[in-house]
């Protein structure tokens, strides 16, 4: 049960000014704009203020992601279904459970045996048995997976009157064009559950809100006539499907609360203790499925004894790192939606190219010399080979992580994940161009946050152990009053 | 303490700890937290040695258990967690009393200490050219400005509360039995240059007394949390909530209004200290939100 404390909705969400968007202002200090959260951030904030605190300041976003989902069957479950459905629609795999099992074994051959076995037995087999008839009726190009959606002005109703608009981005597990359905899929839940897993219905609703609030002029050409507002919402577990009500005032309330926390925590100098005071559970009645239990309710080791001082110093690091993520990552998200294509190109963030072909996992693009320059620069400087190829628009499309393979004249070949992308007959418009974005390593700041917080929380319970551990002794000296002396080895004496 | 706690009594104490921690985590006031109905016979010995308190509201664990060295090693992991949280809650409660005392004696001295702590916690991010123009190498800026912090804070305290010396402040706080850090009354050699770099006179002109008071008290509360070594959010929340409620009562404003005044103040200083940029119109000489800020 969510017992989140109610907060006043924000007055307004601050978007970057034109000079910030066009990078005419030096990036430093606290960004003069509010974050551009992902759906996962909003879910954490809706779950508990402490969850979003850990997400934004300590680089730990695992409140709603179980270990099983992150490392176990979660990705395998979704990825296999994303492979299976198009293959069955094409008639390449018959609707036979043994044959599907065979295909799964091939598909997941690189996964550890135990994870593969578990994924099939507990999740996929049940899902396939339940869906076999539906799978047999699939037609090509009706189901699309991992659809990226983003809007900097998604609108949410206030309780009394009026609205607020917030930026939000996310990824939809499946869009079913034939049945007008948006599907959020998870391995969470039990066969006996009567309600969807915690906040999964809200997640589906948020994704639909983004999708249905995008202006039609921002739709990709291949989906220009689709009426996403009329889509039904479904949360799909291995055991059953749950329909989600679209008219839901409690979801609107959750959203305003969540954005209020996100704005306050990013601004700094406020709300850290308020977040703890307003957390959604207590030790005696904890949310047992929360991924942060070990962080919230763990006994702190006695040593180092200077932990309070360490926290006071380290907390000065967390927020600037959050700001760095906002400068490196969130600003780009705003830019992608707010700037015209040529402005993005001039800033070197985007190169446009014509898709020449798809062959398995390879995509061949044709780029003019000017468009290829950012990629060439990156090749020359020896930086990473990673790019994001966007097929569609930045509002609705497919973001594919790509690795540069080779180039000949104006043709560039990149490796992408095997994915079914929208295709249309020749008469319809196929996305003839793609945007190649260079990924900034913004996630490194999150790693630093996580490492610093781990160091702050780490220590020993036993004095003997602490007395001989050089890092503990160093921290006692650095943050406390201990005099650190270099000890001479017995041999030197 | 010579009383040896039995295994059953350890279990009872753990249960009582769970109740009080749970209530505080639910934001129930400490005075009302942790009371449970237990058969008095079960806790008679514990009450006699002062480990529990009994009254008409029921039974509750006493802070005396914090000095009972025999107890923590006999608790399981959850019990040890509860024991440490309870310790921090009680420390937080003691600090609440100190904060009440500051207001009762309407002491501006704690505000001055708080402002000094706030500046100590800043990296003083400025445009590097400002330091160079005033004869300070950019790589020396942090060291030089750190040495000048007591004087910078004193200028603010002097303007609003007419105090002129750290020695006076520290001795007054000592008399009032209030904690204070060690602050030396040293004159920084390059104070004049640092004041120019930061345009500190302009900054002070644009500071308001009420936001300065709020910053001072909240940072003083933060300092108290640090010296008591409180780690648990529950304990920190007690102190911070008390500091904010004192400030709300003192200024007759809500915390949201006070926070907005602080934001407005930094915006005003930001505007007042802008300098001409070579390429574009103007820019602030420093990131004031990183200097004049809440903890």
Structural write-up:
The complex is a heterodimer of chains A (493) and B (295). Chain A is an alpha+beta fold and 493 residues long. Chain A is 41% helix and 18% strand. A 6-stranded antiparallel beta barrel of chain A has the order 6-7-10-9-8-11. Chain B is mainly alpha-helical and 295 residues long. Chain B has 2 domains: 69 residues, no CATH class; 191 residues, no CATH class. Chain B is 60% helix and 5% strand. In chain B, the strands form 2 sheets. Chain B has a two-stranded antiparallel sheet. Chain B has a two-stranded antiparallel ribbon with strand order 3-4. The longest helix of chain B is centred in the first third of the chain and has 28 residues. Chain B is elongated and about 80 Å long. Chain B starts with 6 loop residues before the first helix and ends in an 11-residue tail after the last strand. Classes of the chains: A alpha+beta (493), B mainly alpha (295). At the A-B interface, helix 10 and helix 12 of A face helix 1, helix 3, helix 10, helix 11 and helix 12 of B.
Set down the secondary structure blueprint.
The complex is a heterodimer of chains A (493) and B (295).
Chain A: H1 18-21, H2 39-47, H3 49-57, H4 67-71, H5 73-89, H6 97-107, H7 113-136, E1 143-157, E2 163-176, E3 181-185, H8 200-213, E4 232-236, E5 241-244, H9 249-267, H10 272-277, H11 293-296, H12 307-338, H13 341-346, E6 350-359, E7 362-366, H14 369-381, E8 386-392, E9 396-408, E10 411-415, E11 433-438, H15 443-457, H16 463-467, H17 470-479
Parallel strand pairs in A: 3-4
Antiparallel strand pairs in A: 1-2, 1-9, 2-3, 4-5, 6-7, 6-11, 7-10, 8-9, 8-11, 9-10
Helix pairs in contact in A: 2-3, 2-9, 3-9, 5-7, 6-7, 12-15
Chain B: H1 7-25, H2 40-48, E1 52-55, E2 58-61, H3 77-104, H4 109-120, H5 128-133, H6 141-161, H7 166-175, H8 191-198, H9 200-205, H10 209-228, H11 233-251, H12 255-272, E3 274-276, E4 282-284
Antiparallel strand pairs in B: 1-2, 3-4
Helix pairs in contact in B: 1-3, 3-10, 3-11, 4-6, 4-7, 4-10, 10-11, 10-12
């Amino acid at each position: 049960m969510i017992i989140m404390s109610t907060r006043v909705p924000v007055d307004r969400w601050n978007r970057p000014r034109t000079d910030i968007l066009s990078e005419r202002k030096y990036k430093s200090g606290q960004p003069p704009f509010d974050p551009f959260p992902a759906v996962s951030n909003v879910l954490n904030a809706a779950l508990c203020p402490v969850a979003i605190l850990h997400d934004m300041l300590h680089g730990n976003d695992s409140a709603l992601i179980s270990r099983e989902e992150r490392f176990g069957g979660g990705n395998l479950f979704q990825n296999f279904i994303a492979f299976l459905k198009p293959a069955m629609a094409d008639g390449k795999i018959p609707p036979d459970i043994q044959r599907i099992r065979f295909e799964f074994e091939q598909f997941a051959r690189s996964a550890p045996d135990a994870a593969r076995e578990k994924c099939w037995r507990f999740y996929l087999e049940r899902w396939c048995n339940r869906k076999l008839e539906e799978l047999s009726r699939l037609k090509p190009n009706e189901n699309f997976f991992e659809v990226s959606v983003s809007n900097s002005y998604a609108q949410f109703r206030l309780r009394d009157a009026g609205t607020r608009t917030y930026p939000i981005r996310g990824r939809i597990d499946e869009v079913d064009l034939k049945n007008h359905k948006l599907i959020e899929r998870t391995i969470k839940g039990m066969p006996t559950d009567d309600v969807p897993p915690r906040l999964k219905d809200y997640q589906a609703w948020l994704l639909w809100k983004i999708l249905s609030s995008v202006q039609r002029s921002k739709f990709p050409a291949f989906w220009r006539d689709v009426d996403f507002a009329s889509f039904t919402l479904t949360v799909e577990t291995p055991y059953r499907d749950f329909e989600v009500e679209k008219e839901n005032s409690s979801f609107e309330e959750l959203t305003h609360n969540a954005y209020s926390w996100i704005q306050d925590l990013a601004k700094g100098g406020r709300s850290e203790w308020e977040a703890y005071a307003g957390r959604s559970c207590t030790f005696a009645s904890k949310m047992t499925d929360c991924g942060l239990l070990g962080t919230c309710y763990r006994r702190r080791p006695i040593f180092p004894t200077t932990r309070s001082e360490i926290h006071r110093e380290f907390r000065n690091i967390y927020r600037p790192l959050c700001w760095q993520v906002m400068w490196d990552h969130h600003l780009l998200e705003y830019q992608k939606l707010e700037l015209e294509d040529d402005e993005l190109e001039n800033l070197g963030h985007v190169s446009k190219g014509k898709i020449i072909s798809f062959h398995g996992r390879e995509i061949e693009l044709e780029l003019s010399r000017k468009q290829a320059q950012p990629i060439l620069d990156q090749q020359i400087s020896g930086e990473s080979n990673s790019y994001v190829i966007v097929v569609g628009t930045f509002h609705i499309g497919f973001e594919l992580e790509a690795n540069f393979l080779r180039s000949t004249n104006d043709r560039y070949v990149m490796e992408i994940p095997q994915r079914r992308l929208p295709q249309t007959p020749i008469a319809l418009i196929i996305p003839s161009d793609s945007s190649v974005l260079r990924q900034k390593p913004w996630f490194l700041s999150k790693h630093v946050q996580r490492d610093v917080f781990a160091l702050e929380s780490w220590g020993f319970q036993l004095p003997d152990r602490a007395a001989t551990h050089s890092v503990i002794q160093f921290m006692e000296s650095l943050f406390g009053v201990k005099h650190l002396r270099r000890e001479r080895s017995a041999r030197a004496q | 303490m010579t009383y040896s706690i039995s295994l059953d009594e350890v279990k009872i104490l753990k249960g009582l700890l769970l109740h009080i921690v749970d209530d505080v985590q639910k934001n129930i006031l400490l005075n009302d937290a942790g009371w449970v109905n237990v058969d008095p016979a079960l806790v008679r010995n514990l009450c006699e040695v002062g480990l529990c308190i009994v009254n008409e509201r029921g039974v509750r664990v006493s802070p005396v258990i914090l000095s009972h060295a025999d107890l923590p090693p006999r608790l399981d992991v959850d019990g040890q967690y509860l024991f440490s949280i309870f310790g921090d809650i009680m420390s937080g409660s003691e600090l609440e009393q100190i904060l009440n005392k500051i207001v009762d004696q309407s002491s501006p001295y704690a505000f001055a200490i708080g402002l000094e702590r706030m500046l100590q916690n800043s990296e003083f991010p400025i445009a590097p050219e400002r330091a160079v123009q005033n004869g300070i190498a950019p790589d020396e800026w942090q060291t030089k400005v750190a040495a000048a912090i007591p004087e910078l804070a004193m200028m603010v305290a002097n303007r609003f509360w007419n105090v002129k010396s750290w020695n006076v402040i520290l001795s007054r706080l000592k008399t009032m039995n209030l904690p204070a850090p060690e602050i030396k009354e040293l004159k920084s050699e390059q104070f004049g240059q640092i004041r120019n770099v930061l345009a500190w006179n302009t900054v002070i002109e644009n500071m308001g007394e009420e936001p300065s008071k709020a910053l001072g008290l909240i940072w003083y509360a933060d300092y108290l949390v640090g010296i008591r070594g409180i780690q648990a959010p529950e304990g920190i929340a007690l102190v911070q909530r008390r500091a904010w409620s004192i400030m709300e009562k003192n200024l007759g404003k809500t915390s949201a209004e006070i926070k907005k005044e602080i934001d407005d103040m930094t915006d005003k200083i930001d505007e007042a200290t802008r300098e001409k940029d070579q390429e574009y119109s103007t820019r602030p000489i420093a990131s004031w939100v990183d200097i004049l800020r809440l903890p």
